[in-house]
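Hypothesis: this fold can be encoded by more than one sequence.
Test: take the structure tokens below, design a sequence, compare later.
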């Protein structure tokens, strides 16, 4: 199969026609937020995100930690070992307070707007 100049132009035009659509998708793109775990604390401790966004917890500590919504069990990352990370997507609005399962005094919250 040969590609003629006309085919090439047609393909180009189709690509251009799709650009506004692609831009609309990009505008709605979900954001990934990072919560750092260090010195037995979540940072930021209180995070506000948009529905559909993802939170990634990065453990920069020497101990294993987790992020667990103890009141509603909406999410539980399980143990995140030192140097590792875990992610959770929040599809709908709500307030989520959470803690580290091994260290109950490590508390933080995520508000999904
Ligand atoms: Cu912990």
């Amino acid at each position: 199969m040969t590609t003629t100049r006309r085919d090439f132009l047609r393909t180009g035009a189709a690509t251009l026609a799709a650009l506004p659509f692609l831009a609309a998708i990009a505008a709605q793109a979900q954001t990934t937020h990072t919560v750092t775990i260090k010195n037995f604390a979540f940072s930021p401790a209180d995070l506000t995100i948009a529905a559909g966004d993802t939170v990634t917890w990065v453990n920069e500590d020497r101990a294993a930690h987790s992020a667990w919504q103890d009141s509603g069990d909406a999410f539980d990352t399980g143990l995140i070992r030192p140097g590792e990370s875990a992610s959770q997507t929040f599809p709908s609005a709500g307030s989520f307070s959470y803690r580290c399962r091994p260290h109950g005094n490590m508390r933080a919250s995520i508000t999904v707007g």
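The beta strands are 32-38, 41-43, 46-49, 54-59, 85-89, 94-99, 107-112. The chain has one domain: 32-112.
Hypothesis status: open.
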